Amino acid sequence: MTDVTLTRDGHVAVIELCRGPNNFVDIAAISALGDAYDAADADRDVRAIVLCSEGKHFCAGANLAERAKDDSDSITQEAGRHLYQEAHRLVGNAKPVVAAVQGAAVGAGLGLALTADFRVGSGASRLSANFARQGYHPGFGTTYTLPRVVGEQKAAWMFMTGERVPGEEALTIGLLDRLVQPEDVRATALEMAREIAISGPLAVQGVRRTLRMGFLDGFKRATYAEHFEQSLVRPTEDFKEGVRAMHERRTPVFKGY
C-alpha cells in the first residue's frame, strides 16, 4: 500500500495521504509526506501544493490501537523524536501549501493541517487538539502553530479541554480560510493553489520566506519542548488510561499519577 501519492495538475502538486478512512499517521506516513514535499520543491514547474487525504477524515491523529501496546515503538521516546524530525520537513519546504481538511483533523492531524499556509474545510470539518483528553501533552509543533493562528487564549482553551471546533467556528477564528460544501473542499483547495500559481513563483516563495521568518526554528523548539513534556507523562497511569478510554470510546478516569 502506498501511504502517499503525488500527482500534477498544471503548476500544482497534489499530495494525498492514502490511509483512509481515518488517515492515521506514524513515522512512515510523515516521512512519505516529507519525501513528496521534497519532490515538489525539486520540480521547478510546481508552484503550489495541495495537501489532501482519501476517505472520510483529513487525519484523525495517531493510531490509538498501536499506541495502546505498551511495548510498541509508537510510544518510545526515540520514535517520538524521529517522528518530529520528519515533521520538521513539512514546515521547511519552499512552496505554499493549501490543505483540504475534510472531516476530522485531530491531534497530530490538526498539527498536520497547521503546517499548511491555508486550510479549506466545510461544516462537516471538526478540528481538535485533544491531547490532554488522552492524558498526553500536545505535540506535532501545535504549541507553536496553533497560537499563531487562533491566539494564545483560544489555543490554551483548546489544549486544556480538547474542544472540538466545528467548521463554522474554525472559519471565524482563522483555523480555516475557506468554508465550502463537503463535496467541494478538495476542488476549492485546488482552485486556491492554482490562483497562487498564477503569481511569480520566485516572488511567492520570497513572500513565504519573509512571512515565515523564524517559523521553522520556532516549530523545532516547540517539538523539542513537547517531546520532553511527553516523555514525562508517557510512563504514567493517566496516559495509559487516556489511550485505553479513547480506544474503548469512553470517558477517561484520570488519577493524577
UniProtKB/TrEMBL annotation:
Write out the GO biological process terms.
fatty acid beta-oxidation
CDD domains, per database record: crotonase-like
Q: Which SUPFAM superfamilies match?
A: ClpP/crotonase
GO molecular function per UniProt: catalytic activity
Say which domain of life the source belongs to. Bacteria
- Give the similarity note: Belongs to the enoyl-CoA hydratase/isomerase family.
Q: What is this protein called?
A: Enoyl-CoA hydratase/carnithine racemase
